[in-house]
């Protein structure tokens, strides 16, 4: 049982969206441009457009992943379409009329629907207001009753030329068993022939519900009803329904002050809302059919609707939150072969991700443009600049809270690193955090700023230079990946002469960093066996190169370093230092020192990522590492397997902000928590949800 009075109301559709607007819909593949009228139904279920032939196309609002306008919208490539829109003429104002709607079942399989308005800035309004409907918490988390209502709305919109509902549409909408559909229509005294049609006036909501009751009988609900209603009576009284809610649905372990039991007046309100019979409502009685609709309503949502809204304290230090994180964000498929795409950065950010990964490599000598790819594999590459532009476009569309760019930097050219830094500065502009905040200096013992302090900011996670001489260039692994990786990146003498390595402000800390330096330098002298292990477990993460001046200067609160020990980290007490672990290394640490791992995460951040042998881009179960307080549990977003579904479900809460405040026993230094302990935790009521599938 969720809340008796749901706190979320359905989204409101602005009048102009329902009234519709004239657009031209174009397609580059067919080179066809067609006049259409674009609309949203009054309940906000569908975006649909009508052609001059009266043919209609529907797009479920829940399938929309993004809306774009202006320079971010798709532009025609074919000359035929460019001529139609006079795009090659100066002052054509085409960008002020564009609208692109992106839809798809996941983040990879996308369809782009392109429109051009007749008037300027119309596309901008549509893009913003349609996306607001898409992002409304109830759009993806509506009750079963809402999804059933969506079917009725669509049936009543798809009318034949005579203005009637074709019966064949019922068969298309409920395709599982045609005979059951025919029987249900007959029960409601409606025509059932495939060439028949139904007057919309003959199919109001009450008849539709009767049709559903006949089509999908619920004997298990009848059993519940029988066990709680007055004997030999075809109804449940208000008192019986109150007893059912308080004794059967409510968890008896809940605090009665914080979660008070249902009152008779509240229960009468439920009867008023769901009971189809007016006489029963007057008598305070609920019929079996009313019971079905009550159980389908938002009061019985699996989710607590109020938790979908932003409700956490966002002023705690950054490391006190779980952060929605992506691994090898640019990949659309497997880790060894397949396409890389800048679009993936848009999609994961739109899904609420707040930490994305960029594997950066030196570009070809012809243009010296840094690229992003999965090193020493057959995956394609994309330009670094293209990814940065995609991030800048979508960083704060879903959440206003900080975005972390996790760089795995293999660009051993000072010139190209400088180009990367310049792209970050110019494309991100004021969004890029280049200096620590005055209240949070980079000193031992000083906590990290909060998500609220960093609202609208982009943070760079990249090695911060602390060496006095250039590090050796990354070595290319021998043997098995020959010819499959990105261009090799040797540092020639002229490169070294062009720019000495910058020691920067951190130079004063060299003494404190000696142990880390030794660990980092050792990674450059790996024997063949260690190299193979690094490739299989860590991938190329252990082969990063020196950060030169320009990239170093962009790094502040997220400074990566090689993990040495929990004791060493506690001694240094630097909140801005972060270590990354493969799932195997993290599991090993968790198994041997679970309490210390939790304490480490109270002070600073950790990032977990999939082992290198997950070539199919499968994911590990993230819950184990959340239980240890690990903030960035990075997953492959292109694979919607069970772990990724769990991640998406968890971060649906707190306004899809990408930040979830950890429980206080994972934050307070005076509390000790062992994730493997079975001891009871204060103010946490543990429970198990079992789902029984109907045969």
TrEMBL record:
SMART domains, sorted: PLCXc, PLCYc
Catalysed transformations (reactions): a 1,2-diacyl-sn-glycero-3-phospho-(1D-myo-inositol-4,5-bisphosphate) + H2O = 1D-myo-inositol 1,4,5-trisphosphate + a 1,2-diacyl-sn-glycerol + H(+)
Keywords assigned: Hydrolase, Lipid degradation, Lipid metabolism
InterPro entries, per the entry: EF-hand-dom_pair, PI-PLC_fam, PLC-beta2_cat, PLC-beta_PH, PLC-like_Pdiesterase_TIM-brl, PLCB1-4-like_EFh, PLCbeta2_EF, PLipase_C_PInositol-sp_X_dom
PROSITE patterns linked to this entry: PIPLC_X_DOMAIN, PIPLC_Y_DOMAIN
Region (Disordered): 465-531
Amino acid composition bias (Acidic residues), ranges on this chain: 506-529
Assigned EC number: 3.1.4.11
Keyword GTP-binding: no
Domain of life: Eukaryota
Keyword Hydrolase carried by entry: yes
Signal peptide boundaries: none
Domain (PI-PLC Y-box) ranges: 551-667
Pfam families associated with the record: PH_14, PI-PLC-X, PI-PLC-Y, PLCB1-4-like_EFh
Protein name: Phosphoinositide phospholipase C
Native source organism of the sequence: Vicugna pacos (Alpaca)
């Amino acid at each position: 049982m969720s809340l008796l009075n749901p706190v979320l109301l359905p989204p409101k559709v602005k009048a102009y969206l329902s009234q519709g607007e004239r657009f031209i819909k174009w397609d580059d593949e067919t080179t066809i441009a067609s006049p259409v009228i674009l609309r949203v139904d009054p309940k906000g279920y569908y975006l649909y457009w009508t052609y001059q032939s009266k043919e209609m196309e529907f797009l479920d609002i829940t399938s929309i992943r993004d809306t774009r306008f202006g320079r971010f919208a798709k532009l025609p490539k074919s000359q035929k379409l460019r001529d139609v829109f006079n795009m090659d003429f100066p002052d054509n104002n085409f960008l002020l009329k564009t609208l692109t709607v992106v839809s798809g079942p996941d983040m990879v399989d996308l369809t782009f629907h392109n429109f051009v308005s007749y008037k300027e800035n119309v596309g901008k309004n549509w893009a913003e207001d349609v996306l607001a409907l898409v992002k409304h918490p109830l759009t993806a988390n509506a009750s079963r009753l809402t999804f059933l209502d969506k079917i009725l709305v669509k049936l009543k919109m798809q009318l034949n030329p005579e203005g009637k509902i074709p019966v064949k549409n019922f068969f298309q909408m409920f395709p599982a068993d045609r005979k059951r559909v025919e029987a249900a229509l007959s029960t409601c005294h409606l025509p059932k022939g495939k060439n028949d049609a139904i007057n919309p006036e003959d199919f109001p909501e009450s008849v539709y519900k009767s049709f559903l009751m006949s089509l999908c009988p619920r004997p298990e609900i009848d059993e519940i009803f029988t066990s709680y209603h007055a004997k030999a009576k075809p109804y449940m009284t208000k008192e019986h329904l109150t007893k059912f809610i308080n004794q059967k649905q409510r968890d008896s372990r809940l605090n009665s002050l914080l979660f008070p039991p249902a009152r008779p007046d509240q229960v009468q309100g439920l009867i008023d809302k769901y009971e189809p019979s007016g006489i029963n409502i007057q008598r305070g009685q609920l019929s079996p059919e009313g019971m079905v609709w009550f159980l389908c309503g938002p009061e019985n949502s699996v989710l607590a609707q109020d938790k979908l809204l932003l409700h956490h304290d966002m002023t705690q230090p950054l490391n006190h939150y779980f952060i929605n994180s992506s691994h090898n964000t640019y990949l659309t498929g497997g880790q060894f072969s397949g396409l890389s795409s800048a679009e993936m950065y848009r999609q994961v950010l739109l899904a609420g991700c707040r930490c994305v990964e960029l594997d950066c490599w030196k570009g070809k000598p012809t243009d010296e443009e840094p690229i992003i790819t999965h090193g020493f594999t057959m995956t394609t590459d994309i330009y670094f600049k293209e990814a940065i532009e995609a991030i800048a476009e979508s960083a704060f569309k879903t959440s206003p809270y900080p975005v972390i760019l996790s760089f795995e930097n293999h660009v051993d050219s000072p010139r190209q690193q400088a180009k990367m830094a310049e792209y970050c500065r110019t494309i991100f502009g004021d969004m890029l955090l280049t200096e620590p905040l005055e209240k949070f200096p980079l000193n031992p013992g000083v906590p990290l700023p909060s998500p609220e302090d960093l609202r609208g900011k982009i943070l760079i996670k990249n090695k911060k230079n602390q060496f006095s001489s250039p590090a050796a260039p990354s070595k290319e692994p021998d043997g098995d990946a020959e010819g499959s990786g990105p261009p090799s990146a040797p540092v020639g003498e002229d490169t070294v002469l062009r720019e000495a390595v910058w020691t920067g402000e951190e130079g004063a800390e060299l003494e404190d960093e000696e142990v880390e330096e030794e660990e980092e330098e050792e990674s450059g002298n790996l024997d063949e066996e260690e190299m193979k292990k690094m490739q299989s477990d860590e991938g190329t993460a252990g082969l990063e190169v020196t950060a030169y001046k320009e990239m170093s200067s962009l790094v502040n609160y997220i400074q990566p370093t090689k993990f040495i020990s929990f004791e060493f980290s506690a001694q240094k007490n630097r909140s801005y230092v972060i270590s990354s672990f493969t799932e195997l290394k993290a599991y090993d640490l968790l198994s041997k020192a679970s309490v210390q791992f939790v304490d480490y995460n109270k002070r600073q951040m950790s990032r977990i990522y999939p082992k290198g042998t997950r070539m199919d881009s499968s994911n590990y179960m993230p819950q184990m590492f959340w239980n240890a307080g690990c903030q960035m549990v990075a997953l492959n977003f292109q694979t919607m397997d069970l772990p990724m579904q769990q991640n998406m479900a968890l971060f649906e809460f707190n306004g899809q902000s990408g930040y979830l405040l950890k429980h206080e026993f994972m934050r307070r230094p005076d509390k000790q928590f062992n994730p493997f302990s079975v001891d009871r935790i204060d103010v946490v009521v543990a429970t198990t949800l079992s789902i029984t599938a109907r045969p």
